Amino acid sequence: MAGINNNAKLDITCPQCNAKFNKTIRELKGSGVKCPKCGIDVETSNFKKGMDEVDRELKNFQRELGNIKIKL
Ligand SMILES: [Zn+2]
User: Fold this and answer.
1) Is the separation of the CB atoms in 33 and 5 below 8 Å?
2) Distance 43 CA to ligand 1 centre (A)
3) Domain boundaries, the chain
4) 13 CA from centroid of ligand 1 (Å)
């Protein structure tokens, strides 16, 4: 079953100190992200909400693909 690649890395810019760092999607979906430079918790709830929507769309898409009958 295809889906989001949880090992894909995303660039994040710290909202407080503007440090740039990478986190995997798995880390972003998990318990939370801390800036490695200043240590603040980076807000990820919007990201999680977006990912949930992508997940749902992918599942819908796959279900529809399964319903398509191709004549050869
Ligand atoms: Zn920071």
Assistant:
1) no
2) 12
3) 9-66
4) 8
